[in-house]
Write a structure and sequence with these properties.
mainly alpha, 83% helix, 0% strand, elongated
Amino acid sequence: MFEGIENPLNDIAMQLVYLGILIIVFMVITAIILRLIQKVIRVHREIVNFFLGLAGLGATYIWIQITFM
């Protein structure tokens, strides 16, 4: 019945899924790099949390650039 109607919510949902995946990938890469750095230099937990948050913000910025520009 609704097969011929294009639903814009599907596009929005897929973009949000893409944003979530992008944030996860950036944070995992940052966590791996920070773990390697921690083996050499002792880093405070607050600094690690800051860099993980910064990775999430960077992923969001890149998603906005890809989606809306």
